[in-house]
């Protein structure tokens, strides 16, 4: 056929070509389903145009009458069967030989322009070869494709790469998600498929080199993975999706075995397991994505590391959620610390406070600083009330509290939002001493790894860690450390704080800048803070941290002095007659109170 054109009525030309040479298998005609054995197209132009009022391609998208080819149940479609039908149809219609010369595909819309120029595409004896240029608005990718296809066994593989030093850039990611994504080369393959008992299982491989991701919620800058690969075994059925146990992920020099399962009926159930192979320590650190672990850059170690994680939740019974996670070391020992010495807390050090990503002030954490308070000069009431509220197991655990993570997940799933964290004192300390305060995925993961290194290698004693924590945390407007807090609120030394004052200071740690909301204009504590006093002191009594007499004599009131009083008290003091026992509040439960 020569000089073909497709011109929709009343619209611009959609398609033109100089010539189409096709051979059709006679046997497929007898089967009632003609399939090309050879297809050649030269000088073809496909131009799709869309304006606010019309386009020249919608006639191709008109829905056909539904065919009962896919089984449906009361719970919906079987997507395994749909995908199996799609794969079989696509492979059964692949010509034995294909040659496309000078193929130009364009899309012109009100807000989008796409242009694909393919000088040559060939499929010969299963071998696929093509070069093309893809222009999306102002973004241009020059690509090369090599691969092969075996329709009889449902096998296909393709290698996509570029000679552009900027790599292959994915369009619209920046516009839609505020991110950049690029890679140097990509290999994807389908090696096997089996449809059995209404479930489709597909096997294949994916490989990517020089993957680069940039997103403000991921990290401050670019995150790069030099080599990544996945060998996947995926099963899809009626309300069932799984990444099977034979799947394997390679991250640079690290091998990870993921397993995932999603069942959507009668309730949504999610299971996830991750197990890493035993990895030589230096290979482990070198395999971490660049840009996500800046504090640990250059670290050297000996021994082996292994990571395991298990997660399961039934969305109909969220409280039964199960979670455990752990990094295990074998003969592990740090040889050098690289960019940051994780032992820095053992000696006096300079600490910089950041606010909104900018440095606010710097001070020494040690005896050289007149505001530094040694551990044994801090009121036991304060130390015990903070442990009770923030992390009672601090002196026993190794940096993590799985129960806290579990309860945090339950709360966040129920609220459908991140409303509660599960940070231990160790994690809060590492965040303040070693990392920025930005809430990124990279910072949180790096925080957890640093905590594990410090706690499991005993780089700093627990008492010293708690001492540093009490001397650097925020307690008000430019108020950092226990001595500044004691003076700001009570004009006292930390050793002289009583039970009520200690409970108040503990109550404002989660939101120190909101300390004024703990008081009314007369300087009396508001109801929610009184409830907090009763809750935490009751737990301290049960744990033997205070006596019955101290508990009975506790009155939910503090005498403000100094700068805090001038900022809070604006009216003549009035007596407070609110009964604590009848108070109710929406309280964020301390992580250890739940176990």
UniProtKB/TrEMBL annotation:
For the keyword Cell membrane, the answer is: yes
Q: Where's the Glycosyl transferase family domain?
A: 358-532
Q: Name one Pfam family in it.
A: Transgly
The cross-references to Gene3D superfamilies, in alphabetical order and at most eight, read: Biosynthetic peptidoglycan transglycosylase-like (1.10.3810.10)
Domain of life assignment: Bacteria
A single GO BP: cell wall organization
Query: What's in the keyword line of the UniProt record?
Result: Cell inner membrane, Cell membrane, Cell shape, Cell wall biogenesis/degradation, Glycosyltransferase, Membrane, Peptidoglycan synthesis, Transferase, Transmembrane, Transmembrane helix
Q: Which GO terms describe its cellular component?
A: membrane; peptidoglycan-based cell wall
**Which Gene Ontology MF annotations are present?**
pentosyltransferase activity
PANTHER family (UniProt xref):
BIOSYNTHETIC PEPTIDOGLYCAN TRANSGLYCOSYLASE, MONOFUNCTIONAL BIOSYNTHETIC PEPTIDOGLYCAN TRANSGLYCOSYLASE
The name under which this protein is listed is Transglycosylase domain-containing protein
Q: Which organism is it from?
A: Adhaeribacter swui
């Amino acid at each position: 056929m020569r000089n073909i054109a497709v011109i929709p009525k009343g619209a611009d030309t959609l398609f033109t070509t100089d010539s189409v040479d096709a051979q059709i298998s006679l046997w497929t005609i007898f089967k009632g389903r003609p399939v090309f054995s050879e297809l050649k197209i030269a000088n073809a132009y496909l131009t799709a145009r869309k304006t606010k009022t019309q386009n020249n391609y919608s006639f191709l998208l008109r829905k056909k009458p539904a065919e009962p080819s896919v089984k449906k149940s009361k719970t919906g479609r079987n997507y395994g069967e749909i995908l199996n039908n799609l794969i079989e149809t696509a492979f059964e219609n692949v010509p034995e030989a294909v040659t496309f010369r000078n193929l130009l595909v364009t899309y012109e819309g009100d807000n989008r322009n796409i242009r694909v120029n393919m000088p040559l595409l060939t499929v010969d004896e299963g071998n696929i070869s093509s070069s093309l240029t893809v222009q999306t608005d102002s973004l241009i990718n020059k690509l090369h494709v090599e691969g092969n296809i075996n329709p009889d066994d449902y096998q296909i593989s393709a290698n996509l790469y570029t000679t552009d030093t900027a790599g292959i850039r994915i369009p619209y990611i920046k516009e839609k998600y505020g991110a950049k994504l690029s890679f140097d080369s990509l290999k994807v393959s389908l090696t096997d498929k089996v449809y059995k008992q209404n479930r489709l299982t597909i096997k294949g491989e994916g490989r990517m080199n020089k993957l680069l991701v940039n997103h403000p919620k991921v990290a401050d800058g670019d995150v790069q993975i030099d080599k990544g690969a996945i060998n996947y075994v995926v099963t899809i059925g009626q309300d069932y999706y799984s990444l099977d146990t034979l799947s394997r992920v390679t991250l640079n020099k690290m091998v990870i075995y993921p397993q995932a399962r999603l069942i959507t009926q009668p309730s949504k159930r999610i299971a996830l397991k991750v197990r890493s192979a035993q990895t030589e320590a230096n290979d482990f650190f070198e395999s971490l994505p660049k840009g996500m672990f800046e504090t640990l850059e250059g670290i050297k170690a000996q021994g082996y590391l292994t990571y395991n994680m298990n997660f399961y939740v039934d969305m109909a019974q969220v409280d039964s959620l199960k979670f455990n996670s752990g990094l295990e070391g074998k003969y592990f020992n740090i040889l050098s610390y690289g960019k940051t010495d994780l032992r820095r807390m053992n000696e006096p050090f300079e600490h910089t406070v950041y606010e909104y990503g900018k440095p606010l002030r710097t001070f020494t954490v040690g005896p050289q600083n007149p505001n530094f308070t040694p551990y044994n000069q801090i009121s036991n009431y304060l130390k015990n009330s903070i442990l009770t509220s923030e992390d009672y197991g601090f002196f026993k655990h190794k940096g993590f509290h799985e129960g806290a993570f579990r309860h945090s997940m339950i709360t966040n799933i129920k609220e459908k939002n991140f409303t509660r964290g599960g940070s231990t004192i160790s994690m809060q300390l590492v965040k303040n001493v070693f990392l920025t305060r930005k809430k990124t995925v990279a910072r949180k993961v790096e925080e957890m790894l640093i905590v594990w290194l410090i706690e499991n290698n005993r780089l700093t004693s627990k008492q010293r860690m708690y001492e540093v924590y009490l001397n650097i945390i925020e307690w008000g407007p430019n108020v950092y450390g226990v001595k500044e807090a004691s003076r700001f609120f009570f004009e006292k030394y930390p050793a002289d704080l009583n039970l009520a004052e200690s409970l108040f200071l503990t109550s404002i740690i989660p939101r120190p800048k909101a300390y004024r909301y703990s008081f009314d204009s007369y300087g009396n504590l508001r109801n929610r803070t009184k409830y907090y006093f009763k809750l935490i002191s009751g737990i301290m009594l049960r744990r033997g941290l205070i006596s019955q007499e101290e508990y009975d004599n506790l009155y939910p009131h503090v005498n403000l002095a100094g700068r805090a009083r001038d900022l809070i008290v604006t009216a003549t003091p009035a007596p407070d007659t609110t009964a604590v026992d009848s108070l109710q509040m929406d309280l964020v439960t301390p992580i250890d109170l739940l176990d």
